[in-house]
Write a structure and sequence with these properties.
The complex is a heterohexamer, with three copies of chain A and three copies of chain B. By secondary structure, chain A is an alpha+beta fold. Chain A has one domain: Alpha-Beta Plaits (2-Layer Sandwich), CATH 3.30.70.120. Chain A has two helices and seven strands; from the N terminus they run βαββββαββ. Chain A is elongated, with a radius of gyration of 17 Å. By secondary structure, chain B is mainly alpha-helical. Chain B contains 14 helices and two strands; from the N terminus they run ααββαααααααααααα. A two-stranded antiparallel sheet of chain B has the order 1-2. Chain B is globular. Classes of the chains: A alpha+beta, B mainly alpha. Chains B and C meet through helix 1, helix 7, helix 8, helix 9 and helix 10 of B and helix 1, helix 2, helix 3 and helix 7 of C. Strand 7 of chain A pairs antiparallel with strand 6 of chain E. The structure holds adenosine-5'-diphosphate (ADP) (3 copies). One adenosine-5'-diphosphate sits at the interface of chains E and A. One adenosine-5'-diphosphate sits at the interface of chains F and E.
Chain lengths: 113, 405, 405, 405, 113, 113
């Protein structure tokens, strides 16, 4: 099992959810984050001038999935999260998971993802 | 001795008193939303400290210093200190009981003091501000109010027109704020860290309350429920809206901005409200419209300059109230034409000079005395929290609270 | 020429002016809390744009169009354009100075325009709304106000009863909102994405300010501080509370809901306030109680229908103000019985027909003209931001700001 | 029969009516910010439920019970039930129309009921509170209002001084709250889980509205726009500020705190406002200053005791309103000296005893009847939501809503 | 060392904290998240009707623990987080950690968990 | 590649960002969290008394970095996040990453960190 961590633009959340679900990632956990990468900060206005927001609003999705769907999920995320707005589309990180437990049943490493 | 109360006029000034009161919470929201989340309670704290300090000193000696028998046109004597038997004192010429006038004026003193929280934002000790604002109200506000509004006040005698406090409130507090900013120094991370406004809806809600209260501030200054109270409200509202529209245009054509911001629109409204204050009952609606059209051309560049400068007058009381107030005071000299006032357009150019004289006296006195006062307090009781405390935020370090869970 | 000011009446209308002013910030909060976080500043922006546009046009020509000498009962002439020497004009029959009346009415025009932000929510360009609302206020609001409230207005002559603006304000704006919604089209993701209200306490706080202001709105419409002003306030408060209670019951028995929601209770209060507006000074308290009991049976199903429909009239000005206003106007014809008015229960069934006639004229005119106006602007200056900008949210894309950090 | 309306006085009481109305939304914010995020809407719901229940019962029988012809000094008869032809009833001695007086008093009944939401916070069923508060208003508030304020009320005849409701409103609701708290029991996790105030800026904004409204509450209780209305406002504002300052000092010297908190300052303001209420128009400004100085010495320790105790009177209506009200009522007996009142300092020690008698009657009756009422409802319709629902929070479980997204 | 990621119903936080601490997880980091899984969204009311919240409020806890306490912590979490409300109780994911540093001291892989 | 998870005091964010960037961690994702460890809760005031906040505000930074910069980044974080205020400075956890994808380009395991 893998934990796929996805960082995307907030406005892509809905589409990514749909695409990832179709690709086999049934459960997911979503967190509002702020990020920094190739994309520069954005300039917002304040009273007399403007200020740069160093960290930009992103959404992080964590999906624990079975190994076999990893490529499909990655492909689905890339497809649905990509925009044409230059840097800032985000990243995907895949981490190994050693064990999964469903709290409701106490089952381990089940088909519960 | 009570002669003849006009209950209608009294009713309107009672109402206006309440309206001016709500301006201070409104200001706390306006200021509080513009600063960082970690200091919002401390900002509310400064505003309520101003209310507390001013109310108590007003009762003890303030009213008497401002409106007592004039000592050489400079300050009132202490004949009304403690406000004893104030309900027996006789009413204004318009039949408003003395009690009502006393508390109406108290509210003006309060909101003025609260505006001065601007350069203290996000860095000051609560206790020190309480001490500062008590003394400032005593030795800066009370005399200036006396000069302009008391029978025998020297600016009043010089013929300065100030319908509702352009000079007494705005010029005064604006230049005082600049003085404090010079002394207290800039916030840690000023122009390095992003100091983003943490809650702009709160700014807008605060503006709503300020606007609401300002109708009482300016309308009540007629001291009667008459046609000039109505005129003052027409003018106040019109100037606010016009200045907001101009601000929108200025931001739109400003290459660094291109978009009208809500904070900008709010600042435009505020600039219009400030500028119309001295003129509200003295100009025709078209005069108010002109004042609204013109004021931003003074306030906008000063605000931009201040932001680029090293002067951390954090909430721009200097630009908005000081410069807005000066502009309004001068333009009152230009456009005054009704209600017994005669300005440039009505044929009397000297009024402009008189207005300028009033502004210079108030601005100079306010700036000078406040500079010395702030300096002395800085050297003695200290004005600022420790650097560490400032970093953590005044809400936790001063009040031991967190604004939002 | 000033004859005789009644300072008591003047005082109350000055107060009512301030109270109606605060309704617009209240509405901004009410609307702002109901929409998504990314558009709250833009909603505040629309409301303040309405204030700006209306205030300026009111000064230029609006007041004169609404209350000037009637041209055939349809619109006023421009004799008061620019409001010159307005403080010399003579007062109302109740002794309220013209200046006070002018600005009291200006506030009505403002809040009406702001309500019309409903179908523009979360999608409109700021500049386009500013243009739209200026023209709308000019060619829709001013005439309808003239018809009903001006001496010689044709609906006034027909005997239409509209104590505080059921027809002028609510029917008018409700049907205008429906017209705009048809033209501007629905928001991206409407009925697909969840469009959850982002801050319900802000909705409730906005409702508090609306309720507060509404007492001045209806009470001030007596144009005097007399027993009918008091009656209007009793009735306003009672109808609001009764309608809220009915709404609670309706949600409770509604199979799709089962629980009374705070938004629902707020909507009930609003429906009651809207419906009592035309009747406030013309009915006995029990009449207000009946109106409060009945209005939800019209508003509730229309609101549910609208939600299920494809009409994205986002903040339900049509259901609440339009349908609530129609209901109130008709019921005024039913329950009017005091203060010189005679409705069905008092023996005059024709009043119901007259009321219906007023509603049809106002609704038809408002809907038709607004439809054309919105259509023309859509084709020329465009009403909506680009799809991308809409997706990101109007706060960033229109104002370059983020509401909350 | 209408004799002679004084439009000025009427105007002020109309205004005061609006000011007292806004206190309830203010209170909802004050209370709502002090509790956990998951229950804020339910708190707003309780406050609006109080408004709804009281307004309707006031119209049906409440006004008549409170101000109808006295039945043995205990309660009014039902001669005004339904408020029919209320606009024809004759005005007060000060020329305020009956309609205005009716709705002014209705607002008092409303805010009093809303304060009683305190011990229901974060745990009560919406419907049960609606039933409770309707009955409570009927059988507790109406009689006590009659005793003190109606012609022929037995406490009024005994000479009890209560300018604006120290006994009727504050003592009454404070002791009622204690009774409810005993019956309803403490919240799950009380003194185990942290129950942190979720939005302190909301508390401060609510306080701002309360302060604003209180000027109308106390100032309006003069029932005229005269020198005593002004005096009441001077005193109200001064006592609030003085008590806030004392609270700051108390927190500063309190070893467990050391820092003045914004919630503390707000509580100090509130304590001052409560304590000055019965005295507002009867004392000199220095008397108000003394009351402000003294009240915290009663409220502060009781508040601390309550917090340490097992009594989950969650928003401290007992400490603030009950104890603050008792203190104010007694001190009115001490400091009363103007406006026809003579207290201890003016030479009449018996007034203190009379005040104490009034307090004992009101507190005893309120506590006893409320205890029984709450107990009966607990046994029949249940007062609390299920434990699970309480854990999830009343916003979701009672209203199916989430306050903030 | 392992990183135990736990996603639970918000109202269980207090109990889970107590149980996990007793089982040997001293430090922990808590994040408010929204999640999606077998549990369907909940219906909340809006003005005219109701809307479905796609993602439901959850709380995520991250606990870095030594290998030997992993089973006890998992057991404690399952026990304290379980409810009888059907789907929605959450999941536990166990990930490998390669290195731990305590910032205050700079110590690595210490007994600092 | 490694995922460096850093938990720090919020007020150190700016400095940590600068230091970590210099040490080679170009991209990063920031999340506001609440934590618990050796540091006790803080006492805040409520109306009548005080209450303890069990979980304290922290900031979590996640940085995916190439293996070779890991020691430098750790060192930079420790240096810039450390205070003299006793417990509460936070922790660093290093987790293995199996795969990284840049959404904008779809590139895998690229030089995109
Ligand atoms: N090395 C990294 N570690 C953790 N998060 C990262 C890293 N690089 C990028 N991110 C996250 O991805 C977001 C988008 O990255 P960015 O570099 O701006 O865009 P792009 O991947 O399109 O070049 C960032 O805001 C940040 O939240
Ligand atoms: N595969 C997954 N990856 C990440 N998070 C998950 C996954 N499955 C469930 N979750 C999280 O756990 C929460 C509860 O899961 P759910 O499937 O609804 O309940 P249960 O585990 O009781 O069937 C979800 O809301 C989500 O936050
Ligand atoms: N074992 C752990 N697992 C996850 N997070 C931890 C762990 N230990 C500490 N933390 C996080 O680090 C923060 C600081 O830890 P703490 O033990 O208080 O400080 P220090 O590391 O200086 O002793 C905590 O608030 C928590 O967010």
């Amino acid at each position: 099992m893998k934990l796929i961590i996805v960082i995307i633009r907030p406005e892509r959340l809905h589409d990514v959810k749909v695409a990832a679900t179709e690709a086999g990632a049934k459960g997911m956990t979503v967190i509002e984050v702020k990020g920094r990468g190739d994309q520069k900060g954005i300039k917002l206005q304040s009273r007399g001038g403007s200020y740069e927001v160093e960290f930009i609003q992103k959404v992080k999705i964590e999906m624990a999935v079975n190994d076999e769907v990893v490529p499909a999920v990655i492909e689905a995320v890339v497809r649905s999260a990509r925009t044409e707005r230059g840097p800032g589309d985000g990243k995907i990180f895949v981490l190994p998971i050693e064990e999964v437990v469903r709290i409701r049943t106490g089952q381990k490493n089940c088909d519960c993802l | 001795m009570l002669l003849q109360v006009d209950t209608g006029n009294a009713s309107w000034i009672l109402t206006a008193t309440c309206l001016v009161l709500i301006m201070t919470p409104g200001l706390a929201m306006f200021y509080g939303g513009l600063i960082r989340k970690k200091n919002v309670l401390a900002m509310f704290g400064l505003c309520v400290a101003a209310m507390i300090a001013v109310s108590i000193q007003w009762f003890l000696v303030g009213y008497s210093m401002a409106f007592g028998n004039s000592i050489g046109g400079f300050v009132g004597d202490l004949s009304y200190a403690g406000l004893n038997d104030v309900f027996l004192m006789h009413e204004t010429a318009t039949g408003v009981p003395a009690t009502v006038f006393v508390v109406f004026q108290c509210m003006f003193a309060m909101i003025t003091a609260a505006i001065l929280a601007s350069p203290f934002a996000e860095r000051s000790k609560f206790g020190s501000f309480l001490v500062f604002i008590s003394i400032w109200s005593l030795i800066v506000y009370n005399p200036i109010a006396h000069w302009v509004w008391a029978t025998g006040g020297f600016l009043s005698q010089a013929g300065v027109l100030d319908f509702a406090g352009g000079t007494v409130v705005h010029v005064n507090v604006g230049f005082s704020a600049a003085a404090v900013a010079l002394v207290i120094g800039k916030r840690q991370g000023f122009k390095k860290d992003p100091m983003e406004p943490h809650n702009i809806p709160m700014v807008a809600m605060g503006l709503g309350l300020l606007w609401f209260g300002w109708l009482g501030f300016n309308g009540g200054s007629a001291l009667a429920a008459n046609e000039f109270a109505g005129l003052a409200i027409i003018n106040t509202n019109l100037a606010a809206c016009t200045a907001a529209l101009v601000w929108i245009v200025l931001e739109y054509v400003d290459k660094g901005k291109k978009k009208p911001s809500m904070i900008g629109i709010s600042t435009g409204v505020l600039a219009g409200l400030v500028a119309i204050t001295p003129a509200a009952g003295y100009v025709q609606p078209w005069g108010a419209f002109m004042i609204g059209l013109l004021v931003d051309f003074a306030v906008y560049p000063v605000l931009k300059w201040r932001t680029r400068s090293n002067l951390d007058e954090s909430l721009d009381a200097f630009a908005c109230h000081g410069i807005g107030g000066v502009t309004g005071a001068i333009l009152t000299g230009v456009f005054a034409s009704v209600n017994g006032a005669t300005g440039l357009v009505a044929g009397d150019a000297t009024q402009v000079a008189i207005q300028a004289f009033g502004v210079v006296c108030a601005a100079g006195f306010a700036f000078g005395v406040t500079l010395v006062l702030a300096f002395l307090l800085k050297k003695t009781i200290k004005l600022r929290v420790k650097p560490d405390e400032e970093y953590v935020g005044c809400d936790v370090s001063v009040h031991n609270e967190i604004a939002y869970v």
